[in-house]
Amino acid sequence: MDKILVANRGEIALRVIRACIELGISTVAVHSLADEDSLHSWLADQSVCIGANKPAESYLDMRRIISAAVITGAEAIHPGYGFLAENADFAEMCEEHNIIFVGPTSEQIRSMGDKAMAKKIMKEAGVHTVPGSEGIVEDLDKAIELSKKIGYPIIIKASAGGGGKGMRIARGQTELIKNFEMARVEARSAFDNSDVYIEKYVENSRHIEVQLLGDGTGKVIHLGERDCSIQRRHQKLIEETPSPFVDEDFRLKIGSAAVTGASNIKYRSAGTIEFLVDKQKNFYFMEMNTRIQVEHPITEMITDIDILKEQIRIASGKPLRFSQEDISYRGHSIECRINAEDPSNDFAPCPGKITSFHVPGGMGVRVDTHAYADYVIPPFYDSMIAKLIVWGETREEAIQRMRRALREFIIEGVKTTIPFHAKVMNDKRFISGDFDTSFIENFEL
Ligand code: MV4
User: Fold this and answer.
1) Which of 57, 148, 283, 347 could form a disulfide with 275 if both were Cys (CB 3.0 to 4.6 A apart)?
2) Ligand 1 pocket, mutate which of 202, 210, 229, 276 (most atoms under 8 A from CB)
3) In 3-state terms, what secondary structure has residue 147?
């Protein structure tokens, strides 16, 4: 592979370009008007302005991106995360233009994107799933009948949703009656698809996901788990690996379940299977993410494997370079997402000019960012401005190093989530490792 177009912006565009440079692949950046002065355009070998500020007129415009690839002679397109990364139509469009989509096949994206279908496929492969409806629930009568059978509380999920969007919990029949149609209407307006399915609501669960690499032949390996339980309104804030909840025996179980699921569909590329884990360490398949994820660096820190490079190698048709026995883990890694948001004002976005910017450094510290002093954060995109990633021999050392790095980090001009992270790093529950996805709701800022 000689040239890759990076169909994204921000830190992930930089991450992809860095991997390409190290692999000796030339790069084409695409950018919107607002991203004229962005680092990703500057760092790439070539750069093409593809349109106006609104994502729909630039980073989400499939035809403009394909055109940019054709004009510049790029053989492949890397979608990063967000935007077109899990758009099966876009992957298909790439396939039709003989452009390599750096990711899974369009069919794999489509089947895993349909959450009810994904669940069915995983269940048939023998991966544990939460008890619930077999596929879509058509109407309220069926929902009531089924919910009686599985027992309350239940959760209604949009089949075209994912990542927590369009979910509703019902703790009894009255709530179900109130929420069922509402969930369908919401799903219709958000995803243009009103299909919903129902499952037993698992209380006090943790969100633990497994990083996978597959080469499309059925060979799949996993790179361990990530605990992403610290989230707010389905936005992850802090991730760590290994999970303080996972021992060697549990890792073997959850890892092989994930490998079985991905191998069964002959998964190609880097991907993640998310599990819901209850207090008794029962784990259930939730979703498969068919993209590189924001939090992939913590896995890189403890496995010493460059996931981006492996993903690109796989896309160029090479078989997996590793077997499961080659994977080992060393130490502990934590990521804090630094967002331009005001934690004391309900995490309201704070776009604007960064007047001073100093990144932490030293042993075991990695900062993935596209920001710099005098950079203006545009209001059109997400508010993440940096990922602060640390490594330590132990969880304690990683936490202490994160405290140290957060203290060094200077961002002026906009409010950030740095003070919030500093508080979490000193929180008793967090330090003990005994938390679930309700951590933030119960957290006193
Ligand atoms: C659940 C669940 C409990 N029981 N499913 C959220 C993201 C998406 N991947 C699936 N999610 C959940 N699915 C069952 N059967 C709990 C979550 C969940 C959650 C739910 C409500 C409020 C906050 C949450 C945070 C993380 C996970």
Assistant:
1) 283
2) 276
3) helix
pLDDT band at 165 (very low <50, low <70, confident <90, very high): confident
> Residue 28: in which H helix or E strand, if any?
strand 26-32
Determine the Cα–Cα distance for residues 387 and 155; give it in Å rounded to an integer. 32
Residue 63: its pLDDT value, please?
A: 98
Q: Give the helix/strand (H/E) hosting 229.
A: strand 220-232
Which CATH number is correct for 131-200, 3.30.565.10, 3.30.1020.10, 3.40.50.300, 3.30.1490.20? 3.30.1490.20
Q: Which atom of ligand 1 is nearest to the CA of 200?
A: 15
The distance between the two most distant Cα atoms of the chain, rounded to a whole number of Å, is 61
**Among candidates 367, 379, 378, which has minimal Cα distance to 410?**
367
Look up 63 and say whether it is catalytic: no
What is the arithmetic mean of pLDDT over 356-363? 98
- Does the beta carbon of 155 lie inside 6 Å of ligand 1? yes
Range(s) of the chain covered by CATH 3.30.1490.20: 131-200
User: Which entry of 110, 291, 313, 401 is annotated as an active-site residue?
Assistant: 291
* Residues 43 and 115: beta-carbon distance below 8 Å: no
Helix or strand or coil: residue 114? coil
Domain 206-442 falls under CATH 3.30.470.20: yes
Cα–Cα dist 163/288, whole Å? 10
pLDDT of 445 over the 80 cut: no
CA distances from 61 to 46, 101, 237, 378, 437 (A): 19, 15, 29, 19, 35
Task: Check if the beta carbon of residue 17 is closer than 8 Å to that of residue 78.
Answer: no
Task: Locate CATH 3.40.50.20 in the chain.
Answer: 3-102
Is the pTM above the cut of 0.85? yes
Pick the CATH number of 3-102 from 3.30.565.10, 3.40.50.20, 3.40.50.1220, 3.30.2350.10: 3.40.50.20
List every span in the chain annotated with CATH 3.30.470.20. Answer: 206-442
The answer to whether the beta carbons of residues 298 and 352 sit under 8 Å apart is no
| Dist CA 88 CA 233 (whole Å) | 26
Based on DSSP, count helices (H) and strands (E) in the chain, helices before strands.
14, 22
Average pLDDT of the segment spanning 357-386: 98
What separation in Å is there between the alpha carbon of 204 and the centre of ligand 1? 10
Alpha helix (H) residue ranges in 210-273 = 248-264
**Residue 166's pLDDT is what?**
78
Report DSSP letters for 307-326, one per residue.
HHHHHHHHHTTPPPS--GGG
Strands 268-277 and 100-101 turn out to be unpaired
